[in-house]
Specification:
264 residues, alpha+beta, 5 helices, globular
């Protein structure tokens, strides 16, 4: 009886340890990154992503200044990244390249599939003439479709966007009557949680946006776009399942650090 108890206890302990390891937080460490180089922890798919120095800290910088060059010819970078991430050049991803190029993204290499849980990142807006956006990329599919939650410094709001069939469309905005003007010289935290169909986003600890994944769209004027219906758009259908990373827009220049993934 004692042996059975000991064996049973050992199995339970081992199972618990595996569960803890599988559910462990993933904190992206930038300490070994080399300033001025492409980050080793993220795979840039579109845009210019480099490691930069901010005071004593190393950060990931999306440099929006040369984004036009990527817009004109994004295919080379997309092909290289698609092969690294998916083992193929991926024709669907190439078909989306023209529109995809407007949105610089970098995919976290250490997480192949994020579903339920929490993702957070700290960001600082550095510059941008057309846009000043910083966001979290998630639910990234092998054809290049994705979801992104972002803060826009020109609009002072938070929004959930989807990208499908080469076109990006808004899914949900934060309350327009409650803007989020932020100090550009300071760091801020963007956090999102997914729990089944329940999606929430916070900005500096304040709940900014809620959405039920898989719900039918509601338009302010006229009928909603058919592509925003989950029936027509797989990226909007739960469950969330895909790669994750960092997101930006056109000529935005932002710093990112403290990217943390907490699986449920």
């Amino acid at each position: 009886m004692r042996l059975v108890t000991q064996v049973g206890g050992s199995i339970f302990a081992a199972t618990a340890l595996v569960a803890i390891l599988l559910a462990a937080d993933i904190k992206v460490d930038l300490s070994e990154e080399r300033v001025g180089r492409v980050p080793a922890t993220f795979e840039p798919m579109v845009g210019t992503w480099v490691v930069a120095q901010d005071g004593k800290e190393k950060v990931i910088m999306v440099d929006g200044r040369p984004w036009v060059a990527n817009k004109d010819n994004p295919t080379k970078l997309l092909i290289q990244s698609a092969r690294k991430l998916y083992g193929t050049s991926n024709e669907e991803l190439m078909d989306n390249a023209k529109q995809f190029a407007y949105y610089p993204v970098a995919v976290l290499k250490s997480v192949n599939n994020f579903s339920d849980g929490t993702i957070s990142v700290k960001f600082k807006t550095v510059g941008g003439e057309s846009d000043r956006c910083s966001g979290i990329l998630f639910n990234v599919k092998s054809n290049g479709d994705w979801l992104a939650i972002r803060y826009n410094d020109t609009e002072n709001n938070v929004a959930l966007w989807e990208f499908h069939n080469g076109i990006r469309r808004p899914v949900r905005f934060s309350d327009r009557s409650k803007p989020f003007p932020l100090d550009r010289s300071a760091w801020h935290e963007l956090k999102m949680t997914v729990n089944g169909t329940d999606f929430k986003a916070w900005l500096d600890g304040t709940l900014a946006l809620e959405y039920t994944l898989g719900s039918e769209p509601v338009a302010r004027k006229g009928p909603p776009n058919p592509d925003l219906s989950p029936v027509n758009n797989p990226v909007l259908r739960p469950p969330v399942a895909g790669k994750i990373g960092l997101w930006s827009k056109t000529d935005s220049t932002s710093y990112f650090k403290d990217f943390v993934v907490m699986p449920k």
